[in-house]
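Re: export button greyed out
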Amino acid sequence: MVKLRARCLLVGDAAVGKSALIHMFHSDGTLFQKNYSMTTGVELLLKCVNIPETNDSVELYIIDSAGKETLVEACEKMWGEPSLLCLVFDLTSEQSFANCSRWMERVRAHCQGLHVPGVLVGNKSDLSARREVQASVAQEWAQSQGLEYHETSAREMENCDAPLLSLARAFQSLYQERREIIQNLIPG
Amino acid sequence: MTESSLSALGAKVVVAASCDENHPPENIIDGNTKTFWMSTGMFPQEFIIRFVEPTKISAVTVDSYNVKHLKIEKNTSRNASQFEPVTEKEFEHTEGHLQSNAISLNGSNATHLRFIITTGYDHFVSVHRVNIQN
Ligand SMILES: Nc1nc2c(ncn2[C@@H]2O[C@H](COP(=O)(O)OP(=O)(O)O)[C@@H](O)[C@H]2O)c(=O)[nH]1
Ligand SMILES: [Mg+2]
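Workaround output, generated via the alternate export path:
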């Protein structure tokens, strides 16, 4: 049994649904924030994810940053050294998808050259009539960035657990991989 | 000369920030570099070693992997609290073999030593052995 701990950055443009999505996960799907208030700074949420079919768990320290341009710099100071990345865009906004590469650059600058497992999340899948980003396009870009792609709807509670579960799994396998390397080290 | 491990001398690890059941903090003081304690994510990470009695320490040796920056604090109290800083050190990155560092403590007297790993070269670090020179 291992209890892992990871600092998970939650980023993406304003209003794509980051906070709604994370609150859904945080409360196991029982709550959806209906009153929209522009996130003003950084919110820290703690969520413990049990990895199915194992005794291992990952405590996620989720850092929800405001997507508003004017606040980005203040938020970045709170990022620290991330262990995991959750990058969110709005499926009904081509612009929010286009901006993902800028978010990636910003996050990479904080990673000290370390491999940081990440997911790309296309949110608001319930608004299918207004969809502007095709799954195949998002999937392809995600792959090019080494991210795993998920589509969710925080409103319909669709698939909301998948992104964080996959992050927790990725962190666990990174741990196992590193442990194996350490087991085979020779004395200095 | 055979060096006794700290645990053979009665020392204990009283606090450790992380725990993997298979790699418990006791592995730090068993004198064996094959066994190790491994951090389970995020920094800082710390562990505290308690000696049976106030002990004069001229230096500590640390065998580890992926540790970047280490701070050492001490106290002379019975409780693991109210520490004062002693020294800090930046470790060099090694690949494929352990880091092995000797850190001078200038004959400090201590009942507890607190090791704080503030940063690492990877998400996870390991400590294989800590020993002291009197
Ligand atoms: N239709 C729909 N609306 C959503 C969904 N997720 C969030 N919203 C709405 O999008 C707006 C912005 O959400 P919020 O979580 O504050 O975005 P953030 O700025 O990225 O944190 C709010 O009005 C939410 O109610 C979703 O899955 N579907
Ligand atoms: Mg928000």
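Residues 3-180 of chain A form a domain with the Rossmann fold fold (CATH 3.40.50.300). The button fix ships in the next patch.
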